[in-house]
């Protein structure tokens, strides 16, 4: 029974340790709340991202409207200039009409003053017809200019209405742009918060791995303790069965002794009866004392930690040994009485009873040894439990539940942030590729228009830039490069210009590409410099280049921050620019008689007049 109670005590200790481990697992459940909060943060990030995308779409629309407004302003400027020119032509025509009328009046006066006989009638009639034809021609020009003036006035009104609508749309786009700035700030804050969560998640992930290893070790120790407890229970059940068998044998011995008592009573031996009764009473007294001492021993073994119980246990063992010695003495005396008054059958039964008693003693000794072994194991398990508790109280494991929770949060948020960054990278890469394709298409469109305007030959219809992404070991996901080449087209067949074009075509292609790049990327920094652009160009291509530059200047005239610098020795080229009225004056640099450079500002009108 004492061994069974010890096993129960060990089982209770193991159960408490298992409950503590179970509580440790239960304490990890608040991670779900943190995961829910992280999901909410991710939802906010997605909503802000969607809002940012909407604002960006609005900004793109606003930019398109702004470009339309710029084109409208250009058209209005062109119309205003045309209207001004038409007005000048109208004034010139009116002035010329007045001069013709004055001339006609003077001719009439001169005709009236001269002698009619000096001129023939046919001459007068011819002069009259000439004057009438001139008058009709001037009237037709006047009517045509009037119609043109009315058309220009109507177009000017429509463009002013379109300009007001564009300005309104532009103001709305600026409001959306301000909102876009606020959303960009919010997105930046969310990204900073996400980065902080990622850092915390990495730390928690490392602590979580360490805690998982420790939990695995604790589970192994717990399994060992469970196995030891099961073995101890099996052993205790076996010992209990042996004790029950010993009790049954002891009962048989007792029955044998009672049978002997009956036979002695039938022998009618008063002296032996008295002695036997005295011995039996002594044996019963000793047995009662043994039972009492066994109870004391059983009680003393319930608490191994108490020194007082240990002392009582030792005293009980000593008393038990004394009682065993007394019992041996009584048995010796009983054997003497049996030899004196009993038969051989009684002696045999007594020997059998003694053997049974010895066997019971050996069983008791075996059980005592097993109890000592179990006590040693229990002490070892108690020490292990104490060591584990002390280890849990060390700084390495103190607050391990909270650290595990934080590390788990950081681990999950890190995985989510990695997925978000991967999505952001893919979206940005796709947007950059689309932007690159769009810009190449826009540049090629401008190059084609300028080439068809400037180049006067028939062997090349147009030129364009082709780009190819680099492939191979040098090209990775993060480092991407492109190869560009200029091709020329005749019909639908593209040919590489390298080695197939003349020096003049190379110069012209370089100028056209520079103009297209400036038109595409330099809207806010309109500075373009051309040094000797007519080198290796023939007269037709020089004339086409002058017309293209005049058209470019005309398009950019209404914009601010646009400046074109031309450096050339070709006076014919400058003369063509003067005819096209691209500017009002230019700088002429020459050396004087002393060899010093002299800069002189000259009027374009004088050059054109010369």
From TrEMBL:
Database matches in InterPro entries: P-loop_NTPase
GO biological process: chromosome organization involved in meiotic cell cycle; double-strand break repair; telomere maintenance via recombination; telomere maintenance via telomerase
Xref: SUPFAM superfamilies: P-loop containing nucleoside triphosphate hydrolases
Catalysed reaction equations from the record: ATP + H2O = ADP + phosphate + H(+)
Cofactor(s) the protein requires to work: Zn(2+)
Keywords: Chromosome, Coiled coil, DNA damage, DNA repair, Hydrolase, Metal-binding, Nucleus, Zinc
One MF annotation (Gene Ontology) recorded for this entry: double-stranded telomeric DNA binding
One GO location term (cellular component): condensed nuclear chromosome
Localization annotation: Chromosome; Nucleus
Chief location bin: nucleus
Coiled-coil blocks: 121-169, 194-235, 320-391
Family named by the database record: Belongs to the SMC family. RAD50 subfamily.
Protein name (database record): DNA repair protein RAD50
Source organism of this protein record: Spumella elongata
Taxon lineage: Eukaryota, Sar, Stramenopiles, Ochrophyta, Chrysophyceae
């Amino acid at each position: 029974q004492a061994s069974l109670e010890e096993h129960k005590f060990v089982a209770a200790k193991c159960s408490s340790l298992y409950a503590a481990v179970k509580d440790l697992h239960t304490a990890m459940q608040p991670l779900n709340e943190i995961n829910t909060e992280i999901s909410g943060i991710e939802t906010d990030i997605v909503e802000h991202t969607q809002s940012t995308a909407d604002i960006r779409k609005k900004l793109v629309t606003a930019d398109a409207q702004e470009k339309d407004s710029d084109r409208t302003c250009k058209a209005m400027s062109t119309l205003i200039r045309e209207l001004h020119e038409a007005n000048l032509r109208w004034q010139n025509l009116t002035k010329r009409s007045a001069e013709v009328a004055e001339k006609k009046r003077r001719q009439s006066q001169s005709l009236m003053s001269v002698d009619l006989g000096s001129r023939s009638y046919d001459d007068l009639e011819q002069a009259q017809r000439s004057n009438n034809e001139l008058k009709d021609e001037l009237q037709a020009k006047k009517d045509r200019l009037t119609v043109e003036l009315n058309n220009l006035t109507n177009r000017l009104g429509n463009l002013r209405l379109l300009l007001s609508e564009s300005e309104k749309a532009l103001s709305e786009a600026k409001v959306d742009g301000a909102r876009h700035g606020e959303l960009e700030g919010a997105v930046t804050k969310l990204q900073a918060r996400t980065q902080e969560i990622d850092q915390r998640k990495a730390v928690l992930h490392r602590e979580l791995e360490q805690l998982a290893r420790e939990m695995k070790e604790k589970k192994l120790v717990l399994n060992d303790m469970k196995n030891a407890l099961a073995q101890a229970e099996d052993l205790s059940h076996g010992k209990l069965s042996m004790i029950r068998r010993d009790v049954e044998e002891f009962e048989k011995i007792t029955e044998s002794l009672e049978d002997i008592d009956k036979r002695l009573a039938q022998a009618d031996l008063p002296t032996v009866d008295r002695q036997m009764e005295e011995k039996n009473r002594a044996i019963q007294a000793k047995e009662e004392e043994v039972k009492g001492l066994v109870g004391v021993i059983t009680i003393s073994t319930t608490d191994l930690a108490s020194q007082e119980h240990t002392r009582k246990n030792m005293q009980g063992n000593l008393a038990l040994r004394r009682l065993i010695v007394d019992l041996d003495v009584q048995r010796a005396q009983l054997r003497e009485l049996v030899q004196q008054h009993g038969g051989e059958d009684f002696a045999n039964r007594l020997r059998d009873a003694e053997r049974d008693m010895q066997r019971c003693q050996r069983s008791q000794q075996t059980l005592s040894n097993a109890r000592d072994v179990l006590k040693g194991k229990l002490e070892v398990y108690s020490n292990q439990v104490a060591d584990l508790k002390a280890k849990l109280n060390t700084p390495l494991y103190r607050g391990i539940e909270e650290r595990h929770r934080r590390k788990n949060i950081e681990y999950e948020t890190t995985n989510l942030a990695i997925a978000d960054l991967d999505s952001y990278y893919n979206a940005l890469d796709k947007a950059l590729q689309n932007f690159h394709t769009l810009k190449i298409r826009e540049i090629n469109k401008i190059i084609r228009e300028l080439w068809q305007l400037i180049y006067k030959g028939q062997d090349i219809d147009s030129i364009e830039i082709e780009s190819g992404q680099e492939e191979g070991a040098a090209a990775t996901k993060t480092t991407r490069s492109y190869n560009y080449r200029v091709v020329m087209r005749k019909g639908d067949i593209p040919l590489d210009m390298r080695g197939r074009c003349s020096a003049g075509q190379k110069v012209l292609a370089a100028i056209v590409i520079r103009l297209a790049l400036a038109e595409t990327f330099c809207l806010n920094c309109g500075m373009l410099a051309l040094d000797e652009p007519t080198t290796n160009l023939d007269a037709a291509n020089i004339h086409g280049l002058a017309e293209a530059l005049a058209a470019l200047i005309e398009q950019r005239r209404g914009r601010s921050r646009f400046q074109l610098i031309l450096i050339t020795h070709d006076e014919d080229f400058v003369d063509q620019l003067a005819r096209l009225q691209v500017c009002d004056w230019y700088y002429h640099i020459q050396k004087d008689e002393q060899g010093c450079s002299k800069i002189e500002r000259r009027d374009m009108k004088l050059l054109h007049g010369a």
